[in-house]
Amino acid sequence: MTEQRTTIRYWNREVETLPRGELEALQLKRLKEQAAWALKTPFYQEQFKKAGITGPEDFKTLGDLRRLPFTEKTDLRDYYPYGFLAVPREEVVRLHASSGTTGKPTVIFLTADDLAASADITARSIVCTGAGREDVFQNMMTYGLFTGGLGLHYGAEKLGMMVIPISSGNTLKQFKMMKDFETTVVHATPSYLLHIHTRMEDCEVRPGDLKLKKAYIGAEPHSEDIRRKIEELYGIDAYNSYGLSEMNGPGLAFECIYKTGMHVWEDAYIAEIINPDTLEVLPDGEEGELVLTILSRRAMPLFRYRTRDLTRIIPGLCPCGRTHRRIARIKGRSDDMLIINGVNVFPSQIEEVIMRLPEVGNNYLIVVEKDGALDKLTVKTEVGPGMATDDTRVLYRLAQKIKDLLKASITLSPHVEFHEPGSLPVSQGKAERVQDRRKEPV
Ligand code: DLL
Questions:
Q1: What CA–CA distance (Å, rounded) separates 433 from 442?
Q2: Cα distance between the two ends of the chain
Q3: Which of 89, 159, 166, 181 has the fewest Cβ atoms nearer than 10 Å?
Q4: Is 301's C-beta closer than 6 angstroms to any atom of ligand 1?
Q5: What is the pLDDT of residues 183-236, one digit of tens each?
Q6: Cβ(340) to ligand 1 under 6 A?
C-alpha cells in the first residue's frame, strides 16, 4: 500500500524539524540534566566515578557521553529492585517490567512527568504516520507489565483519538469491535495480525466490512515481506514501531509515511551504534548494536544502555522534513534472546526450569517454528534414568508439570516432547540448544 503523501502531519513541528545543530544542543542540555539526576542512584555514582566524571558540567560535548561505561541488562537485575531509582519512591506513579524474565525482572519506573513526556512522544509517533483525532485506535497489544498496551495508549488519548483498549486475544471480539466502531488504526504484533486474518472468515467478516487504514507493528522482529503481506491482506499501510521496556516501550522509533526507516526521537534519546565485539562506536550507515541513552525520564535515568538489537543509522534526510535520524529495520540480536509471540525469552530461563526436575535427563533442545502466523515453542527433553518413554500417564503428568512451570516463569506454555536418554543430537563444539526455524517468511 502506498499512503497518499499529500499532507505531512506533525505533532510538534518545531521540535521534529529542529536543525541538527539545535537538536544536538538540546540533547546536550538534557544530557546534563539527566546526569544530575543519575548521580542520585548508587549505580551511576559508581559508573560516573569509573569514568572520572564528577558532575553534569563534565559533559562539555555530546562526545563526552562516550567516556561512560555501558549499562547492561544484568546491571538492572543486579540493582533490583530500587537501585536505579533517582527520585523518592513516593514520586513514582508507574512500574513496568520486561516480559519473560524469571527471578529478577528488569523493571522501569516513571513519575507523573515521565508519563506525560512519554505520552507526548508516543502522540508524536502516531501523528507522524498521518493519523489524527479523527481516527479510531484499537490497541491489540497486551496491557499490563508489558509496555506494548499502555505505552501507546496515553499518546493516542492525548492526541484525541478514540481508543479501544481491547488488549490481545479474543479474535471474534477484535473483529466485532473493528466492524461496529469502524476502527481505522490497529496496534499489534505482526504475528498476531497475520494470525487473526486466518480467522476472519470464521468471524463472518469480509475485508469490505472494515474501515481499517493503518497498523502499527512491532515488539518482535519481522521482515519487509511480512509488512507487505499484512498490507496486502488488509489493504492498509503498516508502520514499523520499535521500542523496549527499558526505554519506556513503543514510541522510541517510528516510521513516518515514507516508511524508509524509523525516526528515533532524538530530543528524548541519544542513539549510538557500536561494534558488539570491539565496542567501538560506528559511523552512520554501519551496522552494529544499538546503544541508547534516555533524556526524558527522571525516575530512572539510563545511560548507554546496550539493547543488543542490531541495526544501522540511515544516512541522509527523510523527505518528511524531520531531522531526527532513522534506524533501519532490526536485523537481529547480538545475544541469544528469543522473541516468541512478542514475549522475550532467554534459553537459559527454560533450562533453569527443566534441568531442576529429576525426571528430566541430560539433554534438551528448544525448537521455535512457525505455526500459521504464530510462533510455536517446543521443548524436547530426554527423560531421566529409570523413566520409561512408553508410560504415557507418567509422561503426560510430567509434560503438564513442565508446561505449568514454564507458564509461571516465562508466561509461555510450550509443547513438550520426550526422548530416550542419549537420543537427542549432541554437537561436537558448542551445544546446540536452540533451533529457530522461523527464518522463512510465512
Ligand atoms: O517490545 C516494546 C514494544 C511494544 C515495541 C510494542 C513496539 C511495539 P520489550 O518487551 O522490552 O518491549 O522487548 C524489546 O523487542 O529489544 C527488540 O529485540 C524487540 N523489538 C521491539 N520492537 C521491534 C521491532 C517491547 N519493531 C525487544 N522490530 C527489543 C524488531 C523489535 N524487534
A1: 24
A2: 19
A3: 89
A4: no
A5: 999 999 988 898 898 888 889 998 789 999 999 999 988 889 889 989 999 999
A6: no
